[in-house]
Design a protein that fits this description.
Chain lengths: 166, 200
């Protein structure tokens, strides 16, 4: 009975009828495992991918939002700093270096405040996207598996089939 | 990918858990390995009971959809007992479907008879295999399930014990009793066939 090689010792029997029966059971099991065509695993993989896809899509959406906000913030910072530097340089040429530098610093500080606000928006956006993804996933699960009572047991911990009583 | 008649690759708990961990992070190769290891074993469990390839595949997909949902949403809490957990889901699903079909089709329904004939014709098993399938179908659910978990699902007795929440010794005794009942059913079936041939 070497098929179940992980605990062969349990299957040893001196009854030839029982041995023959176990061999036939193993052969029937093998026949059933061999029944699916070659595309079986690929179809299963597709199904699994569809099941977990909402999560991947949600992560993708979150990332795209964050990237857009970060990109916009960086652009504002670069353009603003450049413009202020030009302003500062032109002011310095006119002999008013002191007030020009102060003005640049205050404007940079103001831009940094704006960036902090943008960061705040990004985190709110992430939270919103996460919640939307959760709701979408729950809807998918309910749609796909409402017809199977044991799903309630698996997700909710209720024993629908009474396997412990077997 | 496992070939159809490969022995179960009961990897060490650590490597299975590593595989499950990677699968939880959406690693496609990890999912491919998991499906290669367990897909056909779950399918066989379902096919033996429902005797319908399409439905068996549908059940298998449903089982892995549940597994994927739990594993990818951090709801997987069965560290070290993945196989028992997976087959518990599978056994519940198969049992639910089998009961549902029994409720909706009686043996005298034309659809049921047609279905049975189709499956008989589709099966390329030998006569002894068909006789054994018939005898399995006559066992009670508990006896049938332990034999199918063992010989179709290729589970170890230890894993079956974890699945059922029973000690290995109890599982062994139940398996042995189920075999004896199966043998009795087969012998009764042989006697009946012999008597019919004798009277013909």
């Amino acid at each position: 009975m070497g098929r179940h090689n992980h605990d062969t010792e349990y299957n040893e029997t001196h009854d030839p009828h029982e041995e023959a029966l176990i061999r036939t059971l193993d052969a029937v099991g093998r026949e059933d495992r061999g029944a699916p065509d070659e595309g079986f695993e690929a179809r299963l993989l597709d199904h699994v991918a569809e099941t977990i896809a909402p999560r991947a899509r949600a992560i993708g959406r979150q990332r795209s939002w964050v990237f857009v906000l970060q990109g916009a913030a960086a652009a504002v910072l670069v353009l603003g700093a450049g413009a202020l530097m030009l302003l500062s340089l032109s002011g310095g040429g006119a002999g008013t270096a002191g007030p020009g530098v102060t003005d640049v610093e205050s404007r940079i500080a103001s831009l940094e405040d704006d960036l902090d606000a943008l960061d705040g928006l990004a985190s709110i956006s992430e939270a919103l996207e996460s919640n939307i993804a959760e709701v979408g996933m729950l809807t998918d699960i309910m749609d796909a598996e409402l017809s199977m009572p044991s799903v309630y047991a698996e997700l909710g911990g209720v024993d629908s089939g009474g396997e412990g009583s077997l | 990918m496992l070939s159809s008649d490969a022995a179960p690759q009961n990897a060490q708990d650590g490597s299975i858990e590593d595989l499950v961990s990677r699968a939880g992070r959406g690693d496609e190769d990890a999912w491919r390995d998991i499906l290669g290891l367990y897909g056909r074993r779950v399918f066989a469990l379902a096919r033996s009971r429902v005797r319908d390839d399409d439905l068996a595949e549908e059940i298998t997909q449903s089982v892995f959809a549940t597994v994927a949902t739990k594993v990818c949403r951090d709801g997987y809490l069965e560290q070290g007992r993945f196989e028992s957990w997976l087959f518990r889901i599978a056994a519940n699903r198969v049992r639910d479907e089998f009961r549902r079909r029994k409720r909706h089709a009686s043996p005298t329904d034309p659809a049921y008879l047609q279905d049975a004939r189709t499956q008989e014709a589709a099966s390329d098993g030998s006569a002894s295999h068909e006789a054994l399938r018939g005898a399995l179908a006559m066992l009670n659910e508990q006896d049938r399930e332990i034999l199918e978990l063992r010989h179709h699902g290729q589970m170890s007795f230890k894993q079956i014990g974890e699945l059922l929440g029973q000690p290995v010794g109890t599982v062994l005794a139940r398996h042995h009793r189920a075999l004896k009942k199966l043998r009795t059913r087969l012998e009764a079936s042989d006697d009946k066939d012999g008597a019919q041939h004798g009277s013909a």
